[in-house]
Amino acid sequence: MVAFDLRGHGMSEAPEGTEHYTSSRLWADHVQAVIDELDLDHPVLVGHSYAGYIVCDYVREHGQDKVGATDFVGAATTATEEASGSLIGPSTLESKPDGTADQG
Question: Is residue 33 part of a domain?
């Protein structure tokens, strides 16, 4: 099992500037870099909480060919406008206007 802290969380580096946190492609590329660096063969990507978005970013940007499966555990994958306030802040909503679903 491989577990890593997302950028800006836990023991990972926390670069300053919103550009390091608002790009879906950048999050996806970081997951791909871990897969490549460790030469993982079809890993199962598990997204817990906010990492559900990161798993979705990965699949959207890199496809499913190098992944054995995806598993979402208490994960955020979409957010209604009312629920999003507890998951993500206004700057994230502004940077990803299509990242929320209107369930109403």
Answer: yes
Let me know if residue 85 belongs to a domain: no
Comparing C-alpha atoms, which of 82, 31, 81 is closest to residue 53? 31
Q: Which domain holds residue 74?
A: 18-80
Give the pLDDT confidence of 23-46 residue by residue, as tens digits.
788 889 989 999 999 999 999 999
| Burial readout 61-100 (b: 16 or more C-beta within 10 A, e: otherwise) | bbeeeebeebebeebbeebeeeebeebbeeebbeeeeebb
Indicate whether 36 belongs to any domain: yes
Q: How many domains does the chain have?
A: 1
Total-model pTM: 0.68
